[in-house]
Design a protein that fits this description.
Layout: H1 9-17, H2 51-55, E1 62-66, H3 81-90, E2 93-96, H4 102-105, H5 115-126, E3 130-138, H6 146-149, H7 157-175, E4 180-187, H8 201-206, H9 209-223, E5 228-233, H10 242-257, E6 264-267, E7 270-272, H11 287-299, E8 303-312, H12 320-339, E9 345-350, H13 387-398
Parallel strand pairs: 1-2, 1-9, 2-3, 3-4, 4-5, 5-6, 6-8, 7-8, 8-9
Length: 399
Amino acid sequence: MDRGFPLSRRAALAGIAALPLVGCGIDGTTGAAPLASTPQPQKQTLADRSLDSLAQRGGRRFGSAIASTPGYTKGGSIQNPRYAELVRAQSGIVVPENELKWQALRPDPQHFDFARADEIVHWAKDNALAVRGHNLLWFRPQWFPEWLNTYDFGANPRMQAEQLLTTHIRTVVDRYRGTIHSWDVVNEAIDHDTHGLMKTSLGTAMGSAEAALDLAFHTAREELPQGQLVYNDYMSWEPQHMAHCADVLRLLEGFRKRDVPVDALGIQSHIEMFSIDPATGVGPYAEKQWRSFLDEVVGMGYRLLITEFDVKDKALPADIAIRDAKVADYARRYFDVMLSYGDHLDDILAWGLVDKFSWLQNFAPAKRPDGLEVRGCPYDDAYQPKPLREAIATAFATG
C-alpha cells in the first residue's frame, strides 16, 4: 500500500505472508491480483457542504423561510417537493413565512386557524428541523387583520385590549410549546416617518404603544421562561437605514430602562443596492456607523440574529453574470461584518432560497426598472447554486 513512504522489511514480509497463495509457480511468480491501494476519502468542498453544516462551525444554525401552500410565493412551499427538499438539505431551522401572523391565524376575534402553521411545524419535525416563530405581534395597522383595526374595545378599552393581546400570545405560544423556542415577539413597531412608535388600535386602547409592546414581551416571558424573545425590525447597513437604526436604539434602551424581557434584536437584513458606489462597484454601505450601532446593541446585552436575509439588485446591470457576481460581493462584505460579532450572533435565516419564489418579485420598491427578475437568493430558478450561495458558504467557513 503506497502511503507516501517505503515499507519496513517487517511490514513488507507481513504483507507478503498475508497474500493468498493462488497460482504460485515453481519460478516464484503468482497469478494473484496485485494489492489494491486503499481508497482515500475525497475532501469535501464548500459546495458539497450544506449551509447549515457550515454555519454550525460558528455554533449557530442556517435556515430559511418556507410557506405551507404556494400562495403569493407561487411554489416556495412544503407542497413543492423539489423546493422543500432544497430547504431541508441546506437548513437546520425554518420559519413560517406568513402562517403565524395575525392575518393567517385570526379570522375573527373568537377563533384561531392553525391549519397552515401546523403543516409547516409537522413537516419540520418530520425532517428534524428546528422552527422559529414569526411573529406574535406585527405592530403595523396595515398588517393587522381588518377586524382588529376597527375593533370595539367597549367601556374598558385597556382591559379589553390587554385581554385580546395576552389571549393571542398565550394561545399561540402554548400550541407550539416545546417546539418553538425563539419568537419574534414584536415585529416592526417604529413609524419611519415620525420616528416614533406606530399608532395602532391596540396601543390606543391601552393608552400607549409602549404599553402594548411591553405587555407582549412580559406575556411571552411568562409562557416561555427559557425562550428567546426577539424584537425584529427591517434594517441593514445602508446609509439610508441609519436614522432608523437610531430609532431602534431608543426603543431598545427603553426596553432596558423599563425592565422589559427582550433577549435579542432580529436584523432582517434585506440588504439592498438601489444605487452604486463608484468606489466599490456595489451598493453603498455605512460600515463604520453600522458597527457603532451593533456595538451599542450588544453593549446593552442583546444578542443578534439575521432573520430574513436576501439581496435587492435594483441598481445592477441586466447581465446575469455581472449581477450575480456583484450580489455575491455585496453579501460577502455584509456577512464579514456580521460574523465578526460571532460571540453575540445566533441563527441566520434567508427569506427564501430560490429566486422565483422570493417575495422580492412582488415587492414594489425592489422591482427592477427593466422588469427582470430580482436575483437575490442563493439559488436560481433551476435550483442551481449561484455565486451568492458560494459567498455565504465561504463567509461561514472562514468567519
